[in-house]
Amino acid sequence: MRLNEVQVHRSGDDFARDDELAWKIATVAADPVAVDADVTQMIVNRVIDNAAVATASLRRPPVVAARSQAEARPLTGDRPEGKRGATVFGTAADRRFEPEWAAWANGVAVRELDFHDTFLSAEYSHPGDNIPPILAVAQHTGRSGADLVRGIATGYEIQVDLARAISLHQHTIDHVAHLGPSAAAGIGTLLGLDTETIYQAVGQALHTTTATRQSRKGLISTWKAYAPAFAGKQAVEAVDRAMRGQTSPSPIYEGEDAVIATLLDGPGALYRVPLPEVGEPKRAILDTFTKEHSAEYQAQAWIDLARRLGRERPELSDPERVEGIVLHTSHHTHKVIGSGANDPQKYDPRASRETLDHSIPYIVAVALQDGEWHHERSYAPERAQRADTVALWRRITTAEDPEWTRRYHSLDPREQAFGGRIEVRFTDGTTLVDEIAVADAHPLGARPFGRADYVEKFRTLAEGVLDDASVDAFLDAAERLPDLQADELAALTVTPPAGYLDGLAVPQGLL
């Protein structure tokens, strides 16, 4: 890996385009380096993971709305030869839609339950959000499974490398600003585009996907699932424009009125962004991790600890016996999903599901009482409004601990941690102290996820949604991903039996 220094330049500076971060990203994307076997297998895992969580969300209102928007944009017959359209989760595999709208609908389905993969460093991200737009373009343009693997490897690489170096949330910019460029780069790799075209697409994608972080603050709305889908859709459209010879604002990162100067650390900023050298394999996906539980990633380890403690110490579920609980954790966990966010909605039993999955006090209270975490039961309104849960929930606060903050930002995977220390004060004067560094499913956790776990996650979330034959067919196609021919990529979707989606309130829009 090479560290690339990125800083603001005035318009009059002698600043070569080859030195721009967007050009360097495009150079990585245009490099035809082979994908390592272990990276390929992890890509297969994440394709399965995305489909699993999308399957479980098919009836949820944001997904229904996004799917209805895509269904209003079917691929028409007057298309150039070879333009096939893309599939949408929940519709029949032989139906085809405009690729940007398929990316949109599938991106919402993947993101809705907050249940797929993550990478955390200077910025946090869900790099699996790259898969829907890259897959949609692969289907539309008749690319092979091997092409798709190469595109996904690039998408993960660029998003992870940006997240390692450039903090967005520190300036209240939403993390999808790294996703637009990474998805555009991944599509560029998929299509075998030249560096110039990818460069223009990366710039356009970044320019159109910078937005405030209010989408993850206060009472969190349904836009939380739409934000990455929007970035993916913009990436598809940016590539389309760039392929037609259209240019983008530049230097998009380093210009004196561009992203860094205006939205991030300002004119004096200096970032060091790691990117692979030419000929160096793209392996960043191996530094990412998926979720066993449907909640913000910083909650994963806390759920595992709370489940265990709840089983071992039943008195923890009784608010009459608990005076208070403090979760000592990283700055990020404290400020984003903890009491340090100063969001009263994080303690509101009538808050939206999107808010509850970003409330570590709520999550710990339920996991302590139930000894489990479920993507539906744990968020049900009757569960959130239970009197003893509300009482316990409001006894739980977070506090930043410098050591856990340091470990959160560590670049050494052996000490990087996303958990913390729990301190419980009981009403009888006794205390309990315990801690956890990483989730059980983390590569260094008690039960690291492997292929069998991804398959089981898919089968579990597909139960009651897909029939056994459909589950088996999808898994067969996914596990053959690198060998799939163009006409087989349509198998990488899910279609429930007739009647499963009947009776849903499908909202009407402009079309």
Automatic annotation (TrEMBL):
Residues 293-478 form the MmgE/PrpD C-terminal domain. Residues 20-267 form the MmgE/PrpD N-terminal domain. Pfam families: MmgE_PrpD_C, MmgE_PrpD_N. Residues 65-85, 332-351 are annotated as: Disordered. InterPro entries: MmgE/PrpD_sf (IPR036148), MmgE/PrpD_sf_1 (IPR042183), MmgE/PrpD_sf_2 (IPR042188), MmgE_PrpD (IPR005656), MmgE_PrpD_C (IPR045337), MmgE_PrpD_N (IPR045336). It comes from the Bacteria. Gene3D superfamilies: 2-methylcitrate dehydratase PrpD. Belongs to the PrpD family. PANTHER family: 2-METHYLCITRATE DEHYDRATASE (PTHR16943:SF8), 2-METHYLCITRATE DEHYDRATASE-RELATED (PTHR16943). This is MmgE/PrpD family protein. It comes from Frondihabitans peucedani.
